[in-house]
């Protein structure tokens, strides 16, 4: 855990924010290259990434503040303290989707084609974001046995995680999960059979893996109780996104066929 990267002229540069910035820059670079390969206007895609940046930050913070609204009613200015963590990926993702739908409709371009061009960038950006979580100490895991070989222990007193006890490594696991999904998407992107397929694959892989990882997390969670079972808000959204992927495969697929390749001459 290393929440403050450097002190500079009385200002603190937080590791979490730096990793988010790196993730956005890498993601935007990949999105521009992929949009050019797919025949999309790279200038329009770059304009869209600006709105995605804004909407994802607002959405991720809004999602967190809604779930944990009592603490923000007591201290409303905490809403602005992004360096404390509290940027929920699912909130940012949903905000980015809404911005993308609105933008592609205004620009009269295919949302599903744009989504396929951007979704690998989302995953690689998330990987950097989860490294930021590790450095800040947020999104920490439950206490695990001293004998668990992959347990991590935080000692920095200003970090956000539980200190001085071994925890399940949920942040590194989440970063690795995002990297694996990115790799699958990147390797498969040239073989998709319809616009929206890459997005559907990502939703299936991420919703299932995130649902499972949530069982290991122990940071403050919103929850939904169904009988004896308790689920976090992210698990509820995971189910929704999994069903969304099924809808893409059942409804979007027959309407978004890629044009047949021209025969070689």
Uncertain segments of ≥5 residues (pLDDT<50)? 261-265
The largest sheet, given as strand count, sense and whether it forms a barrel, is: 2 strands, antiparallel
Shape: globular
Structural class: mainly alpha
Residues in β-strands, percent:
5-15%
Number of helical elements:
8
Q: If you average the pLDDT, what whole number results?
A: 85
Q: Can you give the helix content as a percent range?
A: 55-70%
Spatial order of the strands forming the largest sheet: 1-2
Order of helices and strands: EEHHHHHEEHHEEH
- Using only C-alpha atoms, the radius of gyration works out to 20 Å
What does this structure look like?
- A two-stranded antiparallel sheet has the order 1-2. A two-stranded antiparallel ribbon has the order 3-4.
- It has 8 helices and 6 strands; from the N terminus they run ββαααααββααββα.
- Mean pLDDT is 85; it is low at 261-265.
- The chain is mostly helical.
- α2 (42-67) runs antiparallel to α4 (89-107) and α5 runs parallel beside α7 (197-213).
- Helix content is 59%, strand content 8%.
In short:
With 265 residues, this protein is mostly helical. Helices cover 59% and strands 8% of the residues. The radius of gyration is 20 Å and the shape is globular.
């Amino acid at each position: 855990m290393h929440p403050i990267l450097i002190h500079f002229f009385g200002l603190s540069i937080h590791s979490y924010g730096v990793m988010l910035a790196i993730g956005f820059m890498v993601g935007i670079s990949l999105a521009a290259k992929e949009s050019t390969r797919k025949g999309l206007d790279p200038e329009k895609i770059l304009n869209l990434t600006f709105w995605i940046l804004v909407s994802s930050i607002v959405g991720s913070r809004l999602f967190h503040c809604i779930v944990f609204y009592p603490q923000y009613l007591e201290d409303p200015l905490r809403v602005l303290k992004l360096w404390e963590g509290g940027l929920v990926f699912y909130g940012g993702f949903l905000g980015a989707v809404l911005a993308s739908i609105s933008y592609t409709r205004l620009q009269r371009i295919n949302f599903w084609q744009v989504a396929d061009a951007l979704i690998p960038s989302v995953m690689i950006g998330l990987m950097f974001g989860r490294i930021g979580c590790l450095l800040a100490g947020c999104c920490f895991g439950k206490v695990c046995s001293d004998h668990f070989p992959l347990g991590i222990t935080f000692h920095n007193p200003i970090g956000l995680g539980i200190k001085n006890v071994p925890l399940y490594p949920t942040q590194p696991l989440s970063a690795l999960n995002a990297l694996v999904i990115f790799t699958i998407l990147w390797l498969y992107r040239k073989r998709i059979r319809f616009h929206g397929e890459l997005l559907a694959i990502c939703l299936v892989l991420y919703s299932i893996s995130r649902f499972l990882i949530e069982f290991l997390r122990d940071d403050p969670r919103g929850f939904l109780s169904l009988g004896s079972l308790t689920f976090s808000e992210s698990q509820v959204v995971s189910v929704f996104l999994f069903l969304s992927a099924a809808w893409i495969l059942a409804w979007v697929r027959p309407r978004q066929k890629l044009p047949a390749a021209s025969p070689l001459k």
